[in-house]
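Changelog excerpt

This revision adds worked examples to the README so contributors can see how folded entries look when concatenated. The first example is reproduced verbatim below.
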Amino acid sequence: MCEARLQQHTAYLEGLIAMVPPKYYLPPNPEEMAKKFQKHARSGDRAGFEGKKQKFLN
């Protein structure tokens, strides 16, 4: 009785977990995260930043 009930609960929980895509509960790949946040960084943008920084500091 107890073992059958445990198997039913296990099957139910596994079904719930199967409905959620792994990308929502597994940690992100560090390389993909770096690409995501650095895709707009260019070498020319840094020169513009330095000019704004100097203007602000003066």
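The second example, added in the same revision:
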Amino acid sequence: MYVDQNATEGRSDPSGTTDAGMAGSGLDGIVEAAGTGQVRVAQLTGTATMQALAAVQEQVDTLRRLASGESETRLGGGYAERIDRFNRDWTVAGDGSATEVMDRFSEQLGRLREAVALSMVAYQDSDSDAEHHVGIAGESL
């Protein structure tokens, strides 16, 4: 969790406690903090983070395709058929299935990528503002 020592208002965590400057103890808090400019990420760090998230997403996509039930294990007949059906049901059917979990995780990765992108823009904006102020200060010398 990132804590901004200069934040003017506190954030509440899931337990209801408030800590001044807390950017979030979960994905929602991170996304909110990124959206309000409380989290800033330098270009190099942001780019590396985006590449890492893309690699994770690629792995999830691969596993999602494998778990989608497009191919059967063809274990044979009788009891093996029931095992095969169980495997398909577990991977693709209903709440808590492997594919449902991977779909939710993919959505969360997307939200995290958006937050990183917003944080990179906030960093660039604050860096540009600081450059402008240094320039103005230097002119008076």
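Reviewer comment on example two: Confidence is low (pLDDT under 50) at residues 13-20. The chain is about 65% helix and 5% strand.
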